[in-house]
Amino acid sequence: MRFRLTPRETSFYDMFAASADNIVTGSKLLMELLGADASARAEIAERMRAAEHAGDDATHAIFHQLNSSFITPFDREDIYTLASSLDDIMDFMEEAVDLVVLYNIEELPKGVEQQIEVLARAAELTAEAMPHLRTLDNLTEYWIEVNRLENQADQIHRKLLAHLFNGKYDAIEVLKLKQIVDVLEEAADAFEHVANTVETIAVKES
Question: What's the superkingdom here (predicted)?
Fold first, then answer.
């Protein structure tokens, strides 16, 4: 990493780490949803909504810091993109939980648990990676693994769609379930966007 003579605002690192930790909380709530009956899902959705609001607060704090900082640790555009992509992950996870409750889904199709397991692993990796933004060391394996997980999520998503359209479900149920699995796939894509942004930052700063 190149040597800098100018001081840099370092609170961004802590805020990115807090945002990623909150995503881990969201992924755990998704996992909890899998094993919950219909009566417990509304309460899980409330906790997910609170986590999503906390994510919004973290994102707004980053944007405020960005607007008020003369010197930033890396490009302003990359800070904005990273914060926005982290926020997108929480938004998609919260949307998935909300849809399960709103649509009164009795049983999620087989394969959704694999989608959520991929998201939970990506969340752990992202939370582990954020503190390394300070030095930009030991991050290569992170973005490689998240990209691999996103490819895995794509395969799971395609199999789920094939399952949904195999004639087992009626048309309305297909529409409901497809929307849920599509939103979970968007969450996986958002994890990849975060990893790609981290890679971009590392390349620029090397």
Answer: Bacteria
The Cα–Cα gap between 177 and 104 comes to 11
CA distance 28 to 120: 7
Count the alpha carbons within 13 Å of 106 in the hemisphere toward its beta carbon.
Answer: 2
Q: Report the CATH number of the 12-205 domain.
A: 1.20.58.220
The two three-digit tokens of residue 183, written as one number: 């939103």
Q: How far apart are CA 86 and CA 25, in angstroms?
A: 13
Contact assessment for residue 122 and residue 149, using Cβ atoms and an 8 Å cutoff: yes
How far, in Å, CA of 71 to CA of 65, rounded?
10
- For 151, half-sphere exposure in the C-beta direction (CA atoms, 13 angstrom radius) is 6
Contact 162, 59 (CB under 8 A): no
Q: What is the pLDDT of residue 1?
A: 41
Q: Looking at residue 9, what is its pLDDT?
A: 56
What ranges do the domains of the chain cover?
A: 12-205
Residue ranges of the chain with per-residue pLDDT less than 50 = 1-7
pLDDT recorded at residue 4: 41
16: left (phi over 0), alpha (psi -120 to 50) or beta: alpha
